[in-house]
Amino acid sequence: MTKSRRIAFIGNSLPRQCGIATFTTDLSHALAASDRDVETRIIAMTDDRIAYAYPDDVVFEIRDGEIEDYVTAARILNNGGYDAVSLQHEFGIFGGADGEFILTLLSQLRIPIVTTLHTILAEPTANQLRILQKVAGASSRVVAMAQKGRALLESVYGVDPAKIDVIAHGIPDRAFHNPEKAKASHGYAGRPVILTFGLLSPNKGIEVVIDAMPTILAQCPDALYVVLGATHPNLLRQEGESYRDSLYARAQQIGVGPSVVFLNQFVDVPTLLEFIAMCDVYVTPYLDEAQMTSGTLAYSFGMGSAVVSTPYWHAQELLDQGRGTLVPFGDADATGQAIASLLGDDDRRMAMRHAAYTAGRSMIWSQIASLYLDSVEKARSTFRPRLVSDVVAQRIARPPQLTSLKLGHFNAMCDDTGIFQHAVYSVPDRAHGYCVDDNARALILATHLAAAAETGISERRTGSFASFIQHAWNPDLQRFRNFMSFDRRWLEEQGSEDSHGRTLWALGICALSDNDRPRRRWAGTLFARAMTTVLGFHSPRAWAFALIGLDAYCRACPEDKSARTLRLQLAERLVDLARRVSSGNRHWFEEGLSYENARIPQALILTGVATGNPQIIDTGLKTLRWLMTQQTGENGQFRPVGTDGFFDRGQAPKLFDQQPVEATATISACLAADAATADKSWLETAFRTFNWFTGSNDHGVSLIDPETGSCRDGLHPDRPNENRGAESVLCYLISCAEISVAARLMRPVPQPLELRQLS
C-alpha cells in the first residue's frame, strides 16, 4: 500500500462471547498492526437483548433484529472515508430469515466489500442459497478458509472462481511449548491432559469424549479431560445449564467423574493459550461434517498440539499428512484408542506436534493480515461504484408475492366505521377521527388486493370503507364530505375539491376491479352521480384524481358517453395549463409544486393512452421528466419535494418534511409511463423511488416495519416522524401492491428491497 487505508469490519466483536467475535477483533487488530499503514474500525453485530461494553474502535452497533440499523450502518460506512469493508458472514448473526437483513446493508454500500464466509453449506435451503449468492454478488472478493469452501462456492453457489481467495484462520504467534511447564501453573503437573475448548453446545460432541474416557483411563490412569468454555449464550437463555449438567451426570454415571473437569468460563486469548500450552492432546469431537472452520482447532494446531479430531471439513485439510489423527464421528471407542495411543507414544506425539507447528507458521496473524490486505487491494482494483441501474439489475430475485405484505398495523388502524386518520406512534388517535380521503385510499388498496386474488383484507372491512364513502355523499350539494369525528358526526357539509376527486378515483377503481359485483355496480352508480361536479372545480389535482378514476370507470362503463366527454375536458384543461405555465426547460402546470405532484402527469399519461391522444401523453411524460429532476438527490436517491412551504419558480425545492404520499404518487406515475412507452428507465425509476421507503433517502433510515407493515409519517429535517398514520401506511401498501402487479404482469423486473424483506 502506498498510502493509509481505512478498513471497516462488520461482524460480532469482543467482548461478545463467540468465535466470530474473537476472529473479527483479532483480524482487525492484525491489520492495524501491519507495516502497511492501516486504520481499522468495527461495526458490531449486537444481540439487542444484551448491552456490551465495546472498546473505542467499535463505531456503531447493529441490533440484529432492527432493519433500520443496517441502513444506518451503510450510511456511516459510505460517509466515513473507508476504502473497503470486511464482512464476517454467518447466517445466524444477522436478523431476518437466515440472516437476510444483511442484504439491506450490502445493497446500499458504495465501497468494495471483502466477505469472509464462516459457514459454507453443501446442502443449503433455497433461501440460504439465495442469500449467500446475493452476498457473494455484492462482494468484490470472497474469502473461504479452506479449499473445500472454494469448491462448494464454485459448484453449489456458482461464485466466479476468479473472485475467491482461500485464506486460513489466523492464529497468535507463540513459541513451541513444553506442556509440563504450563501444567504446573494450573495444578496439573505430572498428569496427561486432554483439552477441548469452546462455547458449550450439543453439536460439539463432548459426550463422545466422556464415553471414551474408560478406554483412555485403562491405558493412562492419570489422564485428565478438561472441558474449557462457557455455555453458548443462546443455549443458556433457552435451557440454562441443563446440557452441562447432563454431561456432568454422564461422567459420574460411567465412573469417570474425577477425571473430567468442567471450567465454565469464557476466557480471553492469553488465558486460552495458557490452557492449550498445557495439553498433551487437543480433541475436537464435532458431530457435523459441514464445519468449514474452527478457531479452536486452528489455535491448538498452530501452537503445536497433538490433535485428535472427527473428520469435519476443516480438520480433514488441516490434519492431513500426519499432522493430526482423524476418528469417525460419534465413535467413542475409536476416539479413546486414538487419544490413548498418542498419550502412550511420546515420540509419535512429538513428531505430530512439530509437523503441526511448522505448518502453522503460515497461519500466524501477521501472515494472514498480509493476505487479507492483498485481497483488499484486489477488491479495490476491480471495484466499480454501482449506478442506480446496476443496483436495480441486481434485485431480480423472484417474483414479488403480495401475500408477503404485512397488514397488522393497517388492521389496527381500522374499526367498524372505517380507518382512523392519525396515529400517535403506532397507536390509533381517536381525537382526529376519520376522513373520506383515507377511506378512499383504503378502498383502493382493498380493490388492488382483491383484483390480484389476495385475501388480506376481509370482505367486512372492505364493505366498511365503501359504506364510509356512501355516507360521505351529500346529495343536496352533490359533494362528498371529508372529516368525521370519532363519535360519527360530520364536521363539514362538503369536503375539499381534492377529497372529492380522490373519492371519484376510488369509486372508479372499485367499479372496475372489485370482486363483489353488487359493490361494483354501487361504485359505478355513485361515480356517475358525482363526476359532473368536477367541471366546476379549480384544483388541478382534483381534475387529476378524477381523471385517474375516469380511466377505470370508462373501462367499467364504456357506454357512458358523458364520462368520456368529461375525461377529455379535464385532460385538455391540464394540457392547456402546462402550455401556459411552462417555459424554457421548466415543464409544469403551476408556478410552484405542492403535494402528490406526480398524480397530474400520471392522469394525463393514462388518459392519453386510453384515448389514443399523443399530445396528452407527451405532456404527461414531459412534465413527469421535469418533476423527476426536482425529486432526485445528489446521490441519485429519490427526494420528494418537502411540505415545508413547497417551492415556487426560481426557488430551490424545500427538503423537508418528506412524506410517503409523494413517493407513492411518483411510483404510480412511473409505472404508467412505463406502460405507455416500454422505456425500461421508468420502471427502474419506480423501483428506485420505492427504496425511499426502505432507507434510500436523505437520512438513510427505513420508514417501514417489516413485521407489522407500518410506515412512519415521513422525514423531518433531523429525524423520521415516528407517528404512523393512515395516509402513510396506505401509501406504502398501495405502492407494494402496484409494484408487485407490475412485476408479475408486465415482464420480469427488479424486485424491490422491501418485498424481499417481507417474504
Beta strand count: 24
Sheet with most strands: strand arrangement: 3-2-1-4-5-6-7
Q: Choose one word for the global shape.
A: elongated
Q: What is the overall number of helices?
A: 29
How much of the sequence is in beta strands? 5-15%
Helix content: 40-55%
Return residue spans where pLDDT drops below 50 for at least 5 consecutive residues: 387-401, 745-759
Tell me about the largest β-sheet: 7 strands, parallel
Oligomer: single chain
Task: Write up what this structure looks like.
The protein has 759 residues and is α/β, with parallel strands linked by helices. Helices cover 47% and strands 13% of the residues. The chain has 29 helices and 24 strands. The strands form 7 sheets. It has a 7-stranded parallel beta sheet with strand order 3-2-1-4-5-6-7, sandwiched between helices. The chain has a 6-stranded parallel beta sheet with strand order 10-9-8-11-12-13, sandwiched between helices. The radius of gyration is 33 Å and the shape is elongated. It starts with a strand and ends with a helix. The model is unreliable at 387-401 and 745-759 (pLDDT under 50).
